[in-house]
């Protein structure tokens, strides 16, 4: 097993920025603590969007996208987080995203949602 664990969080227009940045910060802080102990960082946070364009959150902060979810095999991920926010309703109407999430459910080690 690879020592790097990819921790991915979806981003989409009108996502709640705290639902993205809070959980991602937890994994980044875990890396800092591991390194403080002389160990290697193990978590690789990624933001996944429909395109590589920055995404405007519900508060207007633009979030950079590391990769497109549709170009990534869910099995490559350790953890997949689905945030909430005003944009959730639009995403619930995205059949390609929903199919990818259904596939991911059986392939990622850990799948979770944040807020809504």
Strand-pairing-aware structural class: alpha/beta
Secondary structure: helix percent: 25-40%
Mean pLDDT, all residues: 95
Described by strand count, sense and barrel closure, the largest sheet is: 5 strands, parallel
Q: Kindly report the oligomeric state of this protein.
A: single chain
Order of helices and strands: EHEEEEEHHE
Question: Key terms for this structure?
Answer:
116 residues, alpha/beta, five-stranded parallel beta sheet, two-stranded antiparallel ribbon, 3 helices, 7 strands
Chart the SSEs and their pairings.
Elements lengths: L4 E6 L6 H20 L6 E7 L5 E2 L5 E2 L3 E2 L10 E4 L5 H4 L3 H13 L2 E4 L3
Parallel strand pairs: 1-2, 1-6, 2-5, 6-7
Antiparallel strand pairs: 3-4
Overview in brief:
With 116 residues, the protein is α/β, with parallel strands linked by helices. It has helices at residues 17-36, 88-91, 95-107, and strands at 5-10, 43-49, 55-56, 62-63, 67-68, 79-82, 110-113.
Notes on the structure:
This protein is α/β, with parallel strands linked by helices. The protein has helices at residues 17-36, 88-91, 95-107, and strands at residues 5-10, 43-49, 55-56, 62-63, 67-68, 79-82, 110-113.
